[in-house]
Design a protein that fits this description.
Blueprint: H1 3-6, H2 8-33, H3 48-72
C-alpha cells in the first residue's frame, strides 16, 4: 500500500492546493494580458505586477506539483517483504563433526 492511499485526505488537499495556485497564476496572467489604462485602451506597458505575480504563481505551482508527485512515488517501508532464513540445525551444518 502506498503513502498516497494511506493518506488520501492529505493528497487530495495537496492536489486541491495545487489547482488553486495554478488558477491564481492563470488569472493573474489573464489580468496582465487584458490590462487597460485609464482611457480603457489596451496597454501592453502596464500590468507588470500581474505578470510578476503570474510568474511567481507558475513557479510555485511547479514546486508544489513536484512535492505532490514525490509523495505519490514515496517508498512505503511497510510493504517491504523481509526474507529471513531459519537457523540451520547443527547436524546439517558443514562444520558439524562427523563421527
Amino acid at each position: 500500500m502506498s503513502y498516497a492511499t494511506k493518506n488520501l485526505k492529505n493528497v487530495v488537499a495537496s492536489i486541491a492546493g495545487l489547482l488553486v495556485v495554478a488558477a491564481i497564476g492563470i488569472w493573474q496572467f489573464y489580468a496582465y494580458v487584458t490590462f487597460k489604462d485609464a482611457n480603457a485602451l489596451a496597454n501592453a506597458d502596464g500590468g507588470g505586477m500581474h505578470l510578476l505575480l503570474a510568474i511567481v504563481m507558475a513557479v510555485f505551482a511547479c514546486f508544489i506539483g513536484f512535492l505532490v508527485f514525490s509523495v505519490f512515488l514515496r517508498h512505503d517501508a511497510d510493504d517491504d517483504l523481509h526474507i529471513t532464513f531459519a537457523p540451520v540445525a547443527d547436524h546439517l551444518s558443514p562444520k558439524a563433526k562427523l563421527q
